[in-house]
């Protein structure tokens, strides 16, 4: 039995070819190779090389035995069936230590362009399993005794606090990340997440965010970019921190381009790219980025942020009805998203629905009681002027105090 590596570890087993013809065998092997390559781009995950995994091809395997022999925690397996020129691909992700099924899904497609189908399946699988793996790792870290935590476990606990989406949770996340960085000062993911937390605290109006807090976020974002050569999530979080707190739009977009070149399946990088496009009054580019993020990770734990930002993009395009729909969708999943509330207030005000705008503004001020027009202008210093003025006009119509 091989020891488990420090990172979470996964083996992609050969998918079963349920029809057995040679042409389909070529397609199945190529698809599994694409999936393995795509998953290997996740820097926080240790992925067994294809040559080792493929020693199990054509064999009836016991997942727990495979995990022991390869020294992995997670196993991805699946099968392919063919009917005429269509195929059905099923996959399942298993925690081999506990035997629990973490994820399962199926994909249907035509064989008229097998390379395109291989790419689409690989992209869909990676986008679907990455957040599930993250959540599984968070649950594992939560079960560990505090005295045995290392930097990675502190980071996972910080993510769990971030996902709570509360003022206390974001504050606790920063404290945990500082503990991770005390153990490993070069930990790019932890450094980038501090800035991401600070940006979200600012957006929500949670806590008295000081200049020193913002400066810490900027410093750690720069530190993360120096260390995060292949981590698309860390790069994109750092880029957004520098866009919001330092106004470095061109540099932030260049970082996002590099992140997506390294991992085109990084849903969070597409989401953050969409954020910046929306705030720079480029709604169509934003919507394309958000659509890509949602296709890659339809059940992402931060999906409500994508929905809120889609509302912002439609607001920028002056599609106010559509903006309210996306804001409502975000608030249905997470009722405390201040960005979605602001979009809903603005869109309803511009539609002349002042009663609805007033009611939503009251809910917004319960979350962020210090919000004023002056503070919105201060928060929006990096926004495109035309977008900021549209935003301010809607909030003013709804009755937000000037401050």
Descriptive notes:
By secondary structure, the protein is α/β, with parallel strands linked by helices. The chain has three domains: 9-142, 3-Layer(aba) Sandwich (Rossmann fold); 146-263, Alpha Horseshoe (Serine Threonine Protein Phosphatase 5, Tetratricopeptide repeat); 265-403, Tetratricopeptide repeat domain (Serine Threonine Protein Phosphatase 5, Tetratricopeptide repeat). It is built from 18 helices and six strands. A hairpin with a 2-residue loop joins strand 4 (74-83) and strand 5.
Topology summary:
Layout: E1 9-12, E2 16-17, H1 22-39, E3 46-47, H2 50-53, H3 63-70, E4 74-83, E5 86-95, E6 100-110, H4 114-142, H5 151-164, H6 167-183, H7 188-204, H8 211-227, H9 232-246, H10 249-262, H11 267-279, H12 283-296, H13 303-316, H14 320-333, H15 338-350, H16 354-367, H17 373-379, H18 385-398
Parallel strand pairs: 1-3, 1-4, 2-4
Antiparallel strand pairs: 4-5, 5-6
Helix pairs in contact: 1-4, 4-5, 5-6, 6-7, 7-8, 7-9, 8-9, 9-10, 9-11, 10-11, 11-12, 11-13, 12-13, 13-14, 13-15, 14-15, 15-16, 15-18
Estimated radius of gyration: 23 Å
- How much is the average pLDDT? 89
Fill in the CATH topology of the largest domain: Serine Threonine Protein Phosphatase 5, Tetratricopeptide repeat
CATH H-tier superfamily of the largest domain: Tetratricopeptide repeat domain
Which CATH architecture of the largest domain would you pick? Answer: Alpha Horseshoe
Give the DSSP E fraction (strand runs of 2 or more residues): 5-15%
Q: Kindly provide the name of the CATH class of the largest domain.
A: Mainly Alpha
């Amino acid at each position: 039995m091989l020891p488990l590596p420090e990172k979470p570890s996964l083996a992609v087993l050969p998918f079963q070819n349920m029809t057995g013809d040679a042409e389909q065998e070529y397609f199945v092997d190529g698809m599994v190779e694409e999936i393995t390559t795509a998953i290997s781009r996740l820097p926080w995950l240790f992925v067994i090389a294809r040559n080792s995994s493929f020693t199990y091809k054509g064999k009836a395997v016991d997942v727990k035995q495979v995990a022991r022999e390869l020294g992995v925690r997670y196993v991805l397996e699946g099968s392919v069936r063919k009917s005429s020129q269509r195929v059905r691909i099923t996959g399942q992700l298993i925690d081999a230590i506990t035997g629990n099924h973490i994820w399962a899904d199926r994909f249907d497609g035509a064989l008229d362009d097998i390379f395109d189908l291989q790419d689409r399946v690989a992209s869909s699988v990676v986008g679907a399993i990455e957040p599930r793996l993250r959540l599984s790792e968070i649950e594992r870290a939560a079960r560990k005794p505090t005295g045995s935590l290392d930097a990675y476990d502190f980071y996972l606990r910080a993510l769990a606090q971030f996902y709570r989406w509360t003022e206390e949770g974001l504050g606790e996340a920063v404290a945990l990340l500082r503990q991770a960085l005390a153990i490993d000062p070069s930990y790019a993911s932890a450094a980038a997440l501090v800035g991401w937390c600070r940006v979200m605290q600012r957006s929500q109006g949670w806590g008295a965010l000081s200049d020193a807090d913002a400066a810490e976020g900027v410093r750690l974002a720069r530190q993360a970019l120096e260390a995060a050569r292949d981590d698309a999530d860390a790069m994109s979080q750092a880029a957004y921190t520098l866009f919001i707190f330092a106004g470095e739009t061109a540099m932030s977009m260049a970082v996002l381009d590099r992140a997506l070149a390294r991992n085109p399946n990084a849903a969070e990088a597409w989401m953050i790219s969409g954020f910046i496009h929306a705030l720079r009054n480029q709604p169509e580019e934003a919507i394309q980025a958000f659509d890509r993020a949602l296709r890659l990770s339809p059940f992402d734990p931060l999906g409500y942020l994508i929905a809120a930002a889609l509302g912002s993009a439609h607001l920028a395009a002056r599609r106010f009805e559509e903006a309210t729909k996306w804001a409502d969708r975000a608030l249905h999943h997470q009722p405390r998203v201040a960005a979605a509330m602001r979009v809903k207030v603005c869109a309803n005000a511009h539609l002349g629905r002042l009663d609805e705008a007033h009611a939503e503004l009251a809910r917004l001020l319960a979350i962020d009681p210090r919000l004023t027009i002056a503070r919105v202008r201060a928060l929006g210093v990096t926004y495109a002027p035309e977008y900021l003025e549209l935003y301010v006009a809607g909030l003013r119509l709804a009755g937000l105090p000037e401050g």
